[in-house]
Amino acid sequence: MIIEAGAIYIMDSGYLGFTRLHKIYTAPAFFVTRAKANFSRKRIYSQPVDKAAGVQCDQIVILKGGYYARKDYPEKLQRIR
After folding, report:
1. According to the model, what pLDDT value does residue 70 have?
2. Are 70 and 63 in contact (CB under 8 A)?
3. What residues in the chain have per-residue pLDDT under 50?
4. Among 41, 44, 67, 79, which residue has the least CB neighbours within 10 Å?
5. Can you list the alpha helix ranges (DSSP code H) found in the chain?
6. Cα→Cα distances 39→36, 48, 71, 80, Å
7. Where do the DSSP E strands lie in 1-81?
8. What pLDDT, on a 0 to 100 scale, did the predictor assign at position 38?
9. Handedness of CA 4, 32, 36, 13 (dihedral sign)
10. Cβ(30)–Cβ(5) below 8 Å
11. Among residues 58, 70, 61, 60, which one has the least CA distance to residue 19?
12. Backbone phi and psi for residue 43, each to the nearest 5 degrees, phi listed first
């Protein structure tokens, strides 16, 4: 996949690969994906949300999973639910 700077990539959780996501991040481009059920993360902090609009949380997280997940994507992520 050729990554274009400034583009937004939308992927399903079936295509989730942290190496690919980090390549998009460093392009610099943006991505949106659904997290897998076993997505292991550690919350760094939460941002205020408008729950009346249907947003349950807006968090900055880091990967908590195994060594390879943290190695493949060492940056912070934004988790919105």
Report:
1. 83
2. yes
3. none
4. 67
5. 18-26, 67-72
6. 5, 22, 15, 13
7. 8-11, 30-33, 41-47, 58-63, 77-80
8. 81
9. negative
10. no
11. 70
12. -75, 130
pLDDT number for residue 69: 79
Residue 61: phi, psi to the nearest 5?
-130, 165
What's the pLDDT score for residue 1?
80
Question: Helix, strand, or coil here: 18?
Answer: helix
Could you tell me if 35 and 46 are in contact, meaning their C-beta atoms sit under 8 angstroms apart? Answer: no
Q: Are 33 and 14 in contact (CB under 8 A)?
A: no
CA angle 79, 57, 67 (to 5 degrees): 30
Locate 42 and state its tokens: 């550690």
Q: Report in angstroms the alpha-carbon separations of 57 from 48, 63, 68.
A: 8, 17, 27
Residue 30 CB coordination number (10 Å): 12
